[in-house]
């Protein structure tokens, strides 16, 4: 005999099967189907209603909270975008145990999670606590993690001010920390910002080889790169292969191929052997000046010099022939690459997908996609977007659904970006059942459909008087929070 509660639950499951499964998926603290302690702890953190509730659940779970497990849990939180405050409670609870010390990885990961949510005050709270417990956990990598999140939303001045705060936190406020600041500015701001900050602070630190390599790696102007290269020499810092590769690359991108070849000659004079990165830049530069055949010859010269091309080098050569619309040669280069034991990657295929997309060549795109899947090379988001937009343009519903099914089954591509285009196609074609199925598959993967797609499907369901389906979809969307109506 079932109890009254069990009976109500059973009737609810029969009437709302999809919603019932979803509630189990999103609301259960642990998944009885798995014994993975990382999954158990992650679910406790995600579903706890308070810090006290979380601590009680962790204690009753019987899971041993080791450094390795905490590292893995925090990594899971980072990539799943779980609640940062609940995660901070977990970090503090585990860190406050007597005799326990977090790893540098755990510290940097919680700081990244907080920074992504712009909880900068809490970042400094964590760092101050860490300073008093184990200052050695705060490393130049920590500096870069924090500054990168700050630089994304704050000014250069605010980023530099945050950098200065680390003087009282890190064990050694030295050139490695300075390099972390410069690398952050190169990645999150501009080379001009990095250059200005370098000149304003260089007298407080002693620039080293890494400092100059960071600054050289982002230049687009040949003159500015040359200026930094000269300053490097004046300070007695000897260039290495990375330094020279930066100079070769800026010359190649600036279409000054002759200067690039002179740098390669100078490298050899100084007994610095060009590596595969040097040659890849040369190959790309020759393509920019319309010499794809000469670039192909460089592949042969590399081997003669004892430097064998990798996938990136072949991709550079293939790109040249794709740009020149000589796809036969491009395909032969891909075949040659495979014959050398190198597997074509998503970037390789995207070179062809781009050409087929702009030439509106559906057949070639579909055949290439088939070849890609047969070889076990999973498409990336760019591949998926080239394909789904082409399917949308030519109204190929079945092809679009095949791509989507492959994404769901094999777990590649961005569900959010692809689904927007897919739902447009399905709604225009009146394929409401298919749109509903794809919507539910997406939610089951823990991915939130965009509000635009939801509203469009909602309108069509209202017109078709599919109230039950609309109710399920509305409940699903509510799991991700309030839905904006405009």
TrEMBL record:
UniProt-listed InterPro entries: PPR/CCM1_RNA-binding, PPR_rpt, TPR-like_helical_dom_sf
Highest taxon of source: Eukaryota
Keywords for this protein: Repeat
The keyword Lyase belongs to this UniProt entry's keyword annotation: no
Residue spans of the PPR repeats: 240-274, 275-309, 310-344, 345-379, 380-414, 415-449
Record flagged with keyword Repeat: yes
PANTHER family: PENTATRICOPEPTIDE REPEAT-CONTAINING PROTEIN, TETRATRICOPEPTIDE REPEAT (TPR)-LIKE SUPERFAMILY PROTEIN-RELATED
Family matches, as NCBIfam families: PPR
Protein name: Pentacotripeptide-repeat region of PRORP domain-containing protein
